[in-house]
Input
Amino acid sequence: MLEVKSLEEHKIYVERLARISFFYARKYLLPRLPDATLAECIRDHTPLLYHALFHYESRPKWDDPKSMEILNKANDCAAMPPDEFEETMWNFIADYAHERAEWNYPNGVGVAAPPSWHCGSLTYDNPPPDSGGVVKFHIANAVGPHSIFENPDYLPKCLELLMAETEVRFGSTALATSTWLNDRPRWLALFPDSWRENLSPRVENPIPVWSVASWGQLIDSRGCVVPEREQAVRETGVLKYQTRSSKCSFADLRHHLQTLKS
Output
C-alpha cells in the first residue's frame, strides 16, 4: 500500500528540486539564453522559487528580499562550473530550504492539493473579460500518494466538475491548458480530436517554464523527485516531454467523455 511521503522525504524533494534548478540553469540555460543573467534563468525557467522554496506571494517577479538575496548570490557565483555552482548555492540555502519544507509539508506535493483548488486535481483561473469564453485550468494531484490516472473515472469527473462550475460562474464554453501532459498519450486520450488538432507544435530546444507545467514530469505521485528522470535531465539538458498548449469546447469534451463511458 502506498504511503504519504514523510517530512524527511519532503525535505529531500525540496533539495533535489533546488539542486537540479541550480545545475540546469548554470550548465544548460545560461549558454542557451545569452541575453539573460543566471538569476533570470533560475527565476524564469526553473522550479526553485515557487516549487522548492514556496515563495508564492511574490510570483512572477520574485522581488521579495529572500528571493532577491538568493538570485543575487547566483549572479555573484555565475563564473563557477555547474557542479561547483550547484554545491555552493545549495549550501547557501540549505538551512532555509529545510525550514520552508517543514512549513510547506502539510500542503506539499503528494500530501495534499492546495486548499484553494476547485475541482479535485484541477483548478482554474477566473477568466478575464476578453477570454472569449475560454477558461484556463491547471493540474495537480489531490489523491497522492496515488496517481491521478489510477482510477479511470477520476479525471473525467474532475473535468466534468470544472466545466459545470465555470459554466455557471462565468459562462465559459471552452477550456485550455499548457502542460507537459499534453505530450503524453495517456492524458490526450481524455480529450476529443479537436484538442489534438489545437495542440501547439513540438519545437527544437524548448526552454522550460518555471512551473510544474514543465517540471512536473520529474515528480511521482508521492511528490518525490524520481532520480532516474532527474539524472536524464542532468545528462542531456532535455526534459523528455515538452510543455504544449491546447484547448477545446465544452461541447466537444462532454461528447468525448460520454463516449469513454460507453
In short: The chain has two domains: 7-108, 122-202+243-261. Strands lie at 122-124, 134-139, 174-179, 244-249. Residues 215 and 245 are 15 Å apart (CA to CA).
